[in-house]
């Protein structure tokens, strides 16, 4: 399947997940969807331009073990669950219902709560 078709399929799955969340009174905010492969940074001190891969930065900082992220293909999203006051709930337990529902929508869906480096906010399509 072409990447554009996968992105459309992911969007449709994501719509179901978000609607299900709203129906089940799960408050959330949207985090990272697209992670560009290359970022440009111009140093204000020396005026030199640097190009770096954000995924490499995440790996270096220990946020990811993957060389390539589904965020780079626009096939992943980070969703942050909020309590009634709008505070971010960070523990995996708060995301388990959402993660289980996501995995039921498509056999190629993966939830970051199942990863070796646990990332409960991460939802991706791996088809």
Short note summarizing the structure:
This protein has 127 residues and is of the alpha+beta class. It is 31% helix and 20% strand. It has one domain: Muramoyl-pentapeptide Carboxypeptidase, domain 2 (2-Layer Sandwich), CATH 3.30.1380.10.
User: What's the structural domain tally?
Assistant: 1
Strand order of the biggest β-sheet: 1-4-6-5
**Low-pLDDT segments, ≥5 res:** none
Give the percentage of residues in beta strands: 15-25%
Distance N terminus to C terminus? 8 Å
Largest sheet: 4 strands, antiparallel
Query: Which of globular, elongated, flat, extended, rod-shaped describes the shape?
Result: globular
The whole-angstrom Rg is: 16 Å
Order of helices and strands: HEEEHEHEE
Looking at the overall shape, the CATH architecture is: 2-Layer Sandwich
Give the beta-strand count.
6
Please, could you describe this protein's structure?
It is a single chain. This protein has a single domain (3-125), classed as Muramoyl-pentapeptide Carboxypeptidase, domain 2 (2-Layer Sandwich). 31% of the residues lie in helices and 20% in strands. The chain has helices at 3-23, 54-61, 96-105; strands at residues 27-30, 39-42, 49-52, 76-82, 109-111, 122-125. The model has no long low-confidence stretch (mean pLDDT 92).
Task: Furnish the topology, listing elements before pairings.
Blueprint: H1 3-23, E1 27-30, E2 39-42, E3 49-52, H2 54-61, E4 76-82, H3 96-105, E5 109-111, E6 122-125
Antiparallel strand pairs: 1-4, 2-3, 4-6, 5-6
